[in-house]
Amino acid sequence: MVLNLIPEEQYGFRSVHNTIDQILYFAEIMRDTHNMKPTNHTITEFLDLTKAFGMVWKNKLLVTCPNEFNIRGRALPWISNFLNNRFFRVKYQGGISNIFRSNQDYTTGLYSESHFVLTIHGWDGESV
Question: Which domain of life is it from (predicted)?
């Protein structure tokens, strides 16, 4: 597990890991399985979670941070603001726009995707 939080099998949102690697890994397992016990049937299920991280329960992260990850102090309000209070402005050719509130329900960037991965695998290492 990466930092003992994300299973090695989780390739989404990790550098130098991609879907092709997972497909090749799956094909290798299927080949080895068929070599041990030949069969005419293979059942496979794939689940596309491309847009799922926008539906993650943000409050669970905030409630869980102090106990599960020992995150305390100023970090908790920062994480809360990152997840909930989304504002932006545009800087273009030396000018800067007014501040706008984001209408997106999800955040973007490394921390958002890590939050999603931790949520789907459960805070205690078990899948939810």
Answer: Eukaryota
Long-range CB contacts for residues 64-67, cutoff 8 Å, separation at least 24: 64/123
Q: Is there a single domain that holds both residue 57 and residue 40?
A: no
DSSP the chain: -BTTTB-TT--TT-TT--HHHHHHHHHHHHHHHHHHS--S---------TTGGGG--HHHHHHHHHHHS---TTHHHHHHHHHH--EE--EETTEE---EE---SS--SHHHHHHHHHHHH-TTSS--
* Average pLDDT over all residues of the chain: 70
* One domain for residues 54 and 36: no
Same domain as 104, residue 67: yes
Of 34, 10, 111, the C-alpha closest to 69 is 111
Check residue 83 and give its pLDDT. 72
Identify whether residues 41 and 68 lie together within a single domain.
no
Q: Is position 90 within any domain?
A: yes
